[in-house]
Automatic annotation (TrEMBL):
It comes from the Bacteria. InterPro entries: Methyltransf_25 (IPR041698), SAM-dependent_MTases_sf (IPR029063). It holds the Pfam family Methyltransf_25. Coiled coil: none annotated. Residues 80-170 form the Methyltransferase domain. GO terms for molecular function: methyltransferase activity. This is Methyltransferase domain-containing protein.
């Protein structure tokens, strides 16, 4: 096993661990339903086979939308880290693109039991409690779509943790939806769904108003990264938007369906009522020609400390 795995930075007091930014010892409200949720974590979405399939599908949609797996000018990295790696599909493709590199995926648990590329390694870890890697271990650190997993208050410290892991001259890249699950324009069904989802997310300390996306640049700068660059990518949602629009609409429907049981339980609705609301929202995406956005931000670790 490489020397840079399982060596945690000693200079940071435990009291500064990101997991303690959220109220210490506060019990999270349960997410009810037949699907498997991580009740001890802020993460809102399930961890099961259905979510594995959706995450892989979502990866292909984002790759098609961005026409790449990353935007940072990373050159030829030797060590790559994917934080919140999910199924590992992004990391697997980076293994193929950079066969000389060692690619590490870190997440709360390993989701997909497949034979990974020979230069891939999975490490179990929780970024909210600090990751088990030495300082400056990686040339490229990537984190994507964790607004639904990381409490809003934890984000500044999380990005500082990513910067800690990055070698001088290396890059950190973040990708998040511009407004969470919000599409614009939004009709009454969408507005109701968004209001319900926001109330559920707020109970877990998650961002409900797009604050994370608006702050990505500041987070990177406060982590003392340089050459910070931001890009916004707009995308259609619905069949009116062609292939990308249809794929994004399907992904959004599956996200809402994934949390339909917790929504129904929390708001005292039947699951069919929630499904009907999702179907109405889908119709609005087409009739109103809705769109959404993704923000990509990246910054470089300076060669000399700032």
């Amino acid at each position: 096993m490489p020397w840079w795995v399982f060596r945690r930075r000693r200079s940071v007091p435990a009291s500064r661990a990101t997991g303690q930014v959220v109220a210490e010892g506060a019990a999270l409200p349960p997410l009810q339903g037949e699907r498997r949720f991580l009740q001890e974590q802020p993460y809102m979405l399930p961890k099961d086979l259905g979510e594995v399939n959706r995450l892989d599908f979502q990866h292909y949609v984002l790759r098609a939308l961005l026409r790449a797996n990353y935007l940072a000018p990373i050159g030829q990295p030797r060590r790559i880290l994917d934080v919140g790696c999910g199924t590992g599909q992004w990391a697997f493709e980076l293994c193929q693109q950079f066969p000389q590199a060692e690619v590490v995926g870190v997440d709360l648990e390993q989701l997909k039991a497949t034979t990974p590329p020979s230069n891939y390694r999975f490490v179990q870890g929780d970024v909210l409690r600090g990751l088990p890697f030495a300082d400056a271990s990686f040339d490229f650190v990537h984190q994507r779509l964790l607004t639904s997993a990381l409490p809003l208050a934890a984000w500044p410290e999380v990005v500082r943790e990513l910067a800690r892991l990055t070698a001088p001259g290396g890059w950190v890249e973040l990708v998040e939806p511009g407004l969470g699950l919000r599409v614009t324009p939004a009709g009454p069904a969408n507005e109701k769904l968004l209001s319900m989802g926001a109330q559920l997310a707020a109970q877990r300390g998650l961002d409900t108003e797009g604050a994370v996306a608006r702050s990505l640049e500041r987070y990177l700068q406060e982590a003392r990264l340089v050459n910070v660059y931001m890009r916004t990518v707009e995308a259609p949602v619905g069949e009116w938007g062609g292939r990308i629009g249809s794929l994004l609409a399907l992904d959004l429907r599956e996200i809402w369906k994934a949390i339909s049981t917790p929504l129904a339980a929390y708001f005292n609705l039947s699951q069919q009522e929630v499904y009907n609301l999702i179907d109405s929202a889908n119709q609005e995406w087409n009739s109103l020609r809705a769109s959404c956005s993704f923000l990509i931000g990246y910054g470089q670790k300076p060669f000399t400390p700032r």
